[in-house]
Design goal:
eight-stranded mixed β-sheet, cell membrane, 12 helices, 474 residues, alpha+beta, 46% helix, four-stranded antiparallel β-sheet, 23% strand, elongated
Length: 474
Amino acid sequence: MRADLLALLCVVMLGACGTQVLTRGLKLHTCRKLRSRRDATRPEGRLHKSGSLVLKRSPDITKGSVPKSEHVLRIDDHDFTMRPGFGGPAVPVGVDVQVESLDTISEVDMDFTMTLYLRHYWKDERLSFSGKTNQSMTFDSRLVKKIWVPDMFFVHSKRSFIHDTTTDNVMLRVYPDGKVLYSVRVTVTAMCNMDLSHFPLDTQTCSLEIESYAYTDDDLMLYWKKGNDSLKTDDKISLSQFLIQEFHTTSKLAFYSSTGWYNRLYINFTLRRHIFFFLLQTYFPATLMVMLSWVSFWIDRRAVPARVPLGITTVLTMSTIITGVNASMPRVSYIKAVDIYLWVSFVFVFLSVIEYAAVNYLSTLQERRERKLREKLPCTCGMSHAGHVMMSSSYSEMDNMTTGHYGVSEVNGDKREHMLVQLAMDKEQGAHGPAGKSRAYGVWIDTHAIDKYSRVIFPGAYTVFNIIYWSIYS
């Protein structure tokens, strides 16, 4: 009984499964029929167009096998830690340079900064390759690290770097026969020994020196590829304080006692300083201060408040000019041309102050002597008119030298007494010596004569100094 029930259940389950399979088969058959009908009703032209698009699609070449540069140049087959032709003659390496800019010239640091394109030319047969066309291959800095390149450095350089914006400014170009062009864009700050003895009327010659660090002249021979034409400069290069006169190249051998002889290349350039800036800032102000100090020679000797501040002001101004010039200059142990001019001008200003001190001192001595003689003189009431005329004529020159209101303030009686004192002094001097000495003594104590001679001597001496100075240094 149980067996019959189990058999009946199995039959029922098999019948249900068959019904589902039949239903799915009918649905699949129906879908296939509908798809075949849509394909049959599609226009032939549209199908042809779609087929043409598929036929004309270009293949993706990036998915193909492209040979690497290492495989083309056979970099893995050679040891590039050694120079080309190791064990043979020296490798000739040609060099040419294009100067992009000459940035700064510093007298304080004794250096200059230059940006340039440095190019090397040599032949390495290990990099030769076979190509269908005789065209070169260009690479960037990534391949440079895998092959041999000359180990150049800048002698006496303080700072240098290869530009890396936006990528390293390095270019490597390889030709099928193995010739190599290696170019870098570099900025270098190098030392320049300047002679400032003629500053600011000087001309400076600086040089940038290029040399191999490891390879002597037995292994590497540096030379300028096109002689003096190997150096090119930008026409827009200009400096604020200098005029670039010339660029030229030279080459020499440098000897080091520990390692040997090396080829060294020189980039020489000559600079002449512009003088106009220093004329406006240094020479003209110093000259004007010297000329201003001469004004005191035309001011009355008794005008102390006028002459003393004028002399002190000019001295302090000259000191300020000298300090300002030396603040921007290196502390060299020799005298510069500008120092000579400024210190000579300072001496002229200082002597003008000393000149007034001498005039004032001699005037004081004269007044003391006159005061002593005035006490010994008798009454001057009966003085004849002829004598008065004689004394007036003898002092006419002295009266003419008096400026301002200082001479007018004297009354007639005091003036006659002063003239009598002078006659007494002349008579006293004549009693002790010949007339020639009396006149000489009179000139010596005439303090107005010192100002009169200074008006001619000071400008004349300063003019002679300027003629000699500019003829030597210019």
